[in-house]
Specification:
Layout (H helix, E strand, L loop, with lengths): L1 H14 L2 H8 L3 E4 L3 E6 L2 H10 L1 H12 L7 E6 L10 E2 L5 E2 L39 H11 L18 H5 L2
Parallel strand pairs: 2-3
Antiparallel strand pairs: 1-2, 4-5
Helix pairs in contact: 1-4
Length: 173
């Protein structure tokens, strides 16, 4: 069955953006049956995200491998069950094993060191003076600066790029 999933996974890798595949598909645990995919996600957020956005792509990728039309492929999503923690039995001096009736509780309050501001200016937020401008982002920075200055040519700014490239930093007020 894992051979079928590896072929389906290859098909998905061709259909999806590399970042989407790496973040959302690669870590999944999937079991393949005759006409169904049983997808196990690590948490409910990932399950819901996959179900809302990638069910169709999964059906289309599985269709040629399973030899059935995409509409016939069933995709079932579930979440990994939390691990049951078993409290070990202890041996007393008399040799009788007993299970602790109560778990040791950790203190809820830990001493916390107050965070020091990065700069002395407490009103500081992200600014263009601190942003690293290079050949890959100079146009985006120029457009963002124009939006921030009143009377600029650009009134609406749409920023699109791969994940991890600093879009939120450019868009912060």
């Amino acid at each position: 069955m894992s051979d079928k999933w590896s072929k389906i996974s290859e098909n998905l890798q061709k259909k999806l953006d590399a970042g989407t595949f790496k973040v959302w598909i690669a870590p999944l645990n999937v079991k393949v049956e005759a006409a169904a995919l049983h997808v196990t996600a690590p948490n409910t957020y990932i399950r819901d995200w996959l179900e809302a956005r990638l069910t169709g792509a999964m059906r289309e990728a599985a269709s040629p491998v399973l030899g059935i039309p995409p509409e016939a492929v069933q995709v079932h999503f579930s979440v990994v069950a939390p691990l049951a923690v078993k409290i070990p039995a202890t041996v007393t001096r008399s040799g009788i094993q007993s299970t602790p009736s109560r778990q040791v509780e950790l203190p809820l309050r830990m001493p916390v060191q107050p965070l020091r501001p990065v700069r002395d200016d407490r009103a500081w937020r992200y600014s263009f003076e601190d942003f690293v401008v290079g050949s890959s982002n100079n146009v985006a920075v120029a457009a963002a600066q124009d939006v921030c200055h009143s009377g600029g040519c650009v009134q609406t700014l749409f920023v699109n790029s791969s994940s991890g490239l600093g879009k939120p930093i450019l868009l912060r007020p």
